[in-house]
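User: I want to check something. If I give you two sequences, will you return the structure for each one separately, not as a complex?

Assistant: Yes, each is folded on its own. Here is the first sequence with its structure:
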Amino acid sequence: MYDSFEVPDAIEPLIGYRGWRVVDNVLSSCYREVSWPLGHLESECINPMFPRFTERNPSTIMTSRHWMSPHVSCTCGIYAMHEYPQATEIRESKRVSSIKPWPHDAITGIIHGWGKIIVGTKGFRAQYAKPIALVARKSKIQRTIEETAEQYGLEIVDIWEVRKRGNQNSSWLKQEVS
């Protein structure tokens, strides 16, 4: 009998962009009580943000915990966006503010994501992730960004370079996953 496993599509990690809160000098999820350790984080399935109902009994909440995270039928995994969001977008020939997936006072940064990956249109959910750089921007939280980067041993990259170049020719691409 053969073991069942998935073969990865790529051997290099994906690059993604995400936001964090800083709680007691530690990177934390903006939406869950999850702290990011120094090094990498492994995702695990925790109760979904929304209730799931069974077909037989719509009033019964179905717990959807499973062994492998992320799972295609769940909301679990470590989230990241494919591109860093622009400050404004053009819609119907008008410049409007873009909706960001994190609070305005969040620290933003760049991660490597690897392991099991579920790819979406705007981003991905990963089994493992490691922050590789924080994004500097003019704000009241710049000092927090600098202190957090030092604590985690991360590079600070300029927001305009990230928006202009994205993932092309960037030093954070050359870092190895450990």
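And separately, the second sequence with its own structure:
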Amino acid sequence: MSLRKIFFAACLVLSVLCLAAGYGIAGQWIGVVMAIVIGLAWLFARKYSASGLPLICLLASVGMAVAGQLTGVSPLLMICGSGIALAVWDLLLLDVTLESNSSGEQTLQYENKHLQSLILALSSGLCAAFLGRLLTLQTPFILLVLFVILTVLSLDLVWGYIEKVVYR
């Protein structure tokens, strides 16, 4: 089993668990069933990944998270569920991109680099969402813009360091 398939399975399970757990804790059992159905739809979308089904599954997962937010379900679980669903969607698109390529060294390097950037983006996005939920700061807009620029440049430097260490 390839690393891409392992990440797909792990992300799919985590996304469904976050959505189902959020709805289950709130006692909304229809939401739990819908989260499981969406998880099964993701498996069906993997088989037909060249169609528009992955986008529909992504919209359904994000829609479930938004509906959960509006009905009082745990916001952190809904953020995790929708964020990880975005990673599942990206992995399905990566499958479509790589299905016609041979499994050479260059394709393997591209896949590994894509998975590393996906993990970095997912982890930094979820950390930012968690910090945003926990911290309430009254900052001027210009300071917020400068902070975002600093964060983007820092992530670029971290990514450059990772490339230098890994692809030496």
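Because they were folded independently, the notes below concern the second chain alone. The helical segments are 3-25, 29-47, 53-70, 75-98, 105-134, 141-166. The mean pLDDT is 88.
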